[in-house]
Amino acid sequence: MIRVVLADDQPLVRAGLAMILSAQSDVEVVGEAQDGNAAVELAATARPDVVLMDIRMPGADGLEATRRITADPDLDAVRVLVLTTFELDEYVFEALRSGASGFIVKHTEPADLVRAVREVARGEALLSPGVTRRLIAEFVRRRPRLPWPPADALEELTNREREIVGLVALGLSNDEIAEELVISTATARTHVSRAMLKVGARDRAQLVVLAYQSGLARPLG
Predict the structure, then answer these.
(1) What is the dotted CATH code of the domain comprising 2-127?
(2) Residue 208: partners with Cβ closer than 8 Å, 6 or more residues away
(3) What is the pLDDT of residue 125?
(4) What is the pLDDT of residues 130-185, one digit of tens each?
(5) Angle of helix 90-97 relative to helix 62-71, nearest 10 degrees?
(6) What are the strands of the beta sheet with 2-7, ordered from one edge?
(7) Taking the domains of the chain in order of start, what are their residue ranges?
């Protein structure tokens, strides 16, 4: 059973999300929060698999709540899926840098919402890779490079790991990476995991951010 916490300041939005998700036999909504502080508290007490997190909320917003959840070692298994009104929302990039596992727009189809929750719960962190790549590439192009990750962390990556990080940035799954490099899926998974560990990335979403910020992947266009 996938346990989900809903964080949105609009009761009607939460009710709609709860109705869609609770209708699934493998999903259980275990709590609702109307602001970021409540979301963090629920993440700590309910220990959900996924927090569906709105960005714009009063008090502590979704960005702050995401940072607090992903920085807590006790909540390492909790994944944050960001809700946004627009795909190219500058706050989405910051949410990914803060540890969110992906994002989904509020006007998405119910079936796609359910699929997104299931994928994040399984650890498939990067959703809608084409859109996410465009979003990350746009904001990397606009802004100076940020200090994360440390330069010495990048130096620890092997040539193969750098190659694989670049493929992750293209949105390739472990199976697709394995096919591209003619290696086993298990080997691809191991390389991805080692790369995340070396650079301190929480999941594949942060690894994509790293790829663009470090130049391992180039912005589109």
Answers:
(1) 3.40.50.2300
(2) 96, 126, 132, 133, 136, 168, 169, 217
(3) 60
(4) 555 666 666 666 655 555 566 667 788 999 999 999 888 877 788 889 999 999 99
(5) 10
(6) 27-33, 2-7, 50-54, 79-84, 102-105
(7) 2-127, 146-214
Whole-Å CA distances, 4 to 32, 94, 98, 123, 138 = 9, 22, 20, 14, 31
Whole-angstrom Cα distance, residue 36 to residue 216? 33
* pLDDT of 30 strictly over 70: yes
From residue 166, alpha-carbon distances to 121, 124, 173, 189, 208 in Å are 24, 17, 12, 14, 8
The stretch 117-130 carries a mean pLDDT of: 71
CATH number of 146-214: 1.10.10.10
- The Cα-based distances of 73 to 60, 81, 82, 98, 217 in angstroms read 20, 18, 20, 14, 29
